[in-house]
UniProtKB/TrEMBL annotation:
Organism expressing this protein natively: Glycomyces rhizosphaerae
SUPFAM superfamilies from the UniProt entry: (Trans)glycosidases, Galactose-binding domain-like
Annotated signal peptide: 1-32
Superkingdom, taxonomy of origin: Bacteria
CBM6 domain location: 439-571
Keywords on record: Signal
Protein name, entry field: Carbohydrate-binding protein
Amino acid sequence: MKSVFRRAATRAGVIAFALGAVIAGSQVPAQAAGLTLTVDVGNIVRPATQVAAGGLYGVGSDSQPTTAMLQPLNPTSFTQPAPGTTHLGNGATEPCCDSLDVGDNIVRAGAQQFIRMPDIYPTFPYDWQGWGDWESKVTKMVNDRLAETDMTNIHGWELWNEPDWTWQTSEAGSFNEGWARTYKLVDSLDPVTPIVGPSWASYNHDRMLSFMTHAKNTNTVPDVMVWHELTDMDWNNFDDHVADYRAIEDSLGISDRPIAINEYNSYNQMDIPSVALHWMAVFERHGAREAHRAYWFEAGTFDGLFTLQNQPTASYWLYRWYGAMTGNIVRTTPDSWLDGVASYDSTRKIVNTVFGGDYGNNTVRVTGLGALGSQVQVQLLSTPGSGRHTAVTAPTTISTTTMTVSNGAISVPVNNMDAEAAYQLVVTPVGGPTTSWQQVYEAENQTVVNANTFGSGNASNGYYVGRIDNNTDMRSDSFVDFTVNVPTARSYTMAIRYANGTGATSTHGLAYNGGAFSTVSYPATAGWAQFSTVNVTVNLKAGYNVIRLAKGAPNFNGGTGYAELDYIKLT
């Protein structure tokens, strides 16, 4: 979180982004020269997990935003303030967003969260009160979390925030020493939950090398590496930051850590959909595990995706299109300022591309479409460049056309583009997707907790979830939460595609929408990643439902043996 006086500037200065003015030393073209974004459906990057669909202080309470507002966005994770927070962020008159208070809402939305520990302090920058005070606060925060034995979605303790300018070295000593001291205290109280950091305000090689060297020498290397990306148009540098960090890991002999950017986008550009689109593209392309929209303004609005009256903004529609991505993220090749993110769902044969970033008459070329037939249906939509206080009730449909596939490709003209707007291009076989509603939900696209995603040619879509092994307590329980959207309230047959290489029958717990658990039995298969199916019946409500398949979870005694999950299919 930020106090806006640090990097504040007027939006009027940023609107020049769309007028060809210089921002952060880069020249934006005043008019596009016929750019082409290329989408290669056959070139898989990673499973679709909505890497960029997170927020700092994005959830304000158990009902703000409501779970129903969050679920269509398919959020990945959030960073929320410490249990018992007293923090007054961005002009607030009372604290909000306590991680334990909002936790159930986040679970229902299919997401996880980091707990930001220094936001126990009321002010920002933080008012350090001495080591005795800090360690007492840390101990209470951890114990308060451990007492919440039904809270499953805490996947990291964030020990500090932006120490490059908030850590008071003259009073607290060096940050590297302070990190190690706090790490060891948290680890002594909770050796299970990952520890994340150091959460620099910006990436810096020398600072990162010094920190990682000290962390290795003191055995306090973060489980998840966190820094912030908050400068205008700094998406251009993200690949360099990742490469530099990986080189530091390699030089020190440290195994690769997941990268989480738990604050992204600048104060100036926060409400411009095409800018958020650029961040989405680089996070997906260069390997971030998760990323959270920055909290520059009002808490509890998913950082400007909703107005203060709980209405969707222009940026909301970009994130809703992104949230609908299923299957795999596929390769996109930008052209100057024109960039995008694309997915391909081989089950329904849907190519979903979100893109933007430049003016004029441009083109999206989609290749690798052989599986969709000789003709395809192409729908083009847009959402404007309006800000967080302007409600946008629906995106604009620009066109719906039929196009002939030539050598497995189509070229879609997109005329009169607005550099601040975002666009969606959906390509399906003529007549639409193979089913009118999504029936197959890949495990690797879902909320995977204390388990891992693996690749296999035997798996549908090329990936599956394994090592669903733990049932000790709420911190280490292993499960997959499937967020599904069904057209009517009724009983559905749910086929579970699984693998069980134990040689004996294994079991998982099954629950949905917070209800009681039942048991699913998985007969042995030919081996691990050798799949079969079992059928069960689930009674679902119309709209969104969360289905949990668990080795361990609160209110479930634990499964027997082990099983891997490929997908569920509802019929």
